[in-house]
């Protein structure tokens, strides 16, 4: 298998934990101001109730983001892909460039499996197929399924990914690309 690393181009869970702490402190300040506004019967006391409530809701959202990691996994050697089919359950299809190497298809399938396996998917296993479109002649397009990856959905601790590449599809693709 390929080297796997988790990268984050956005905010990390630690960043959200720090933001949660600051907004919780801010909500405390607003709560004290709201209490003072009711004690002294300030005219904007009901607005402070809304501001305090909104700050608490914002704090709850930031807290949830500090718990759930959502950083994508990057597999070295993986190439760009487009998700062309996802039934929300057990099947998914990605499209890769026609000149993608077998090693890159394998790395890309591994990356997609690691990033798309979630608790909400139906079925016992997730199957992801990689396909490309080649053009044997000017008026014909043919979809070639270059490989597939299967991972069990019943347990996220089971990191076994079964990746199978279709050598016949790669050979056919190479023949078509060489003839063009």
How would you characterize the overall build of this protein?
The protein has a 5-stranded mixed beta sheet with strand order 3-4-5-6-7. Strands 1-2 form a two-stranded antiparallel sheet. It is α+β, with helices and mostly antiparallel strands. The mean pLDDT is 90. Strand 3 and strand 4 form a beta hairpin. The protein has helices at residues 13-39, 45-67, 102-116, 167-179; strands at 4-6, 73-75, 82-86, 91-95, 125-137, 140-152, 161-165. Helix 1 (13-39) packs antiparallel against helix 2. It is built from 4 helices and 7 strands.
Strand tally = 7
Q: If strands are numbered along the chain, what order do they take across the biggest sheet?
A: 3-4-5-6-7
Helix content, binned percent: 40-55%
Order of helices and strands: EHHEEEHEEEH
Residues in β-strands, percent: 25-35%
Write a compact overview of the structure shown.
Helix content is 43%, strand content 26%. By secondary structure, it is an alpha+beta fold.
Task: Sum up the structure in keywords.
single chain, 180 residues, alpha+beta, five-stranded mixed sheet, two-stranded antiparallel ribbon, 4 helices, elongated
List the helices and strands and how they pair.
Layout: E1 4-6, H1 13-39, H2 45-67, E2 73-75, E3 82-86, E4 91-95, H3 102-116, E5 125-137, E6 140-152, E7 161-165, H4 167-179
Parallel strand pairs: 4-5
Antiparallel strand pairs: 1-2, 3-4, 5-6, 6-7
């Amino acid at each position: 298998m390929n080297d796997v690393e988790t990268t984050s181009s956005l905010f990390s869970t630690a960043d959200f934990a720090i933001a949660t702490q600051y907004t919780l402190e801010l909500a405390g300040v607003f709560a004290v101001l709201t209490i003072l506004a009711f004690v002294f019967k300030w005219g904007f006391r009901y607005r402070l109730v809304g501001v305090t409530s909104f700050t608490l809701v914002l704090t709850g959202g930031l807290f949830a983001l500090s718990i759930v990691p959502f950083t994508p996994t990057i597999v070295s050697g993986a190439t760009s892909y487009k998700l062309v089919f996802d039934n929300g359950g057990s099947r998914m299809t990605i499209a890769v460039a026609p000149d993608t190497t077998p090693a890159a298809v394998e790395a890309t399938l591994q990356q997609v499996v690691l990033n798309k396996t979630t608790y909400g998917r139906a079925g016992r296993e997730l199957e992801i197929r990689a396909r490309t479109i080649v053009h044997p002649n000017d008026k014909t397009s043919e979809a070639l399924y270059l490989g597939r990856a299967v991972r069990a959905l019943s347990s996220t601790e089971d990191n076994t990914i079964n990746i199978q590449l279709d050598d016949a599809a790669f050979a056919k693709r190479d023949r078509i690309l060489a003839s063009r």
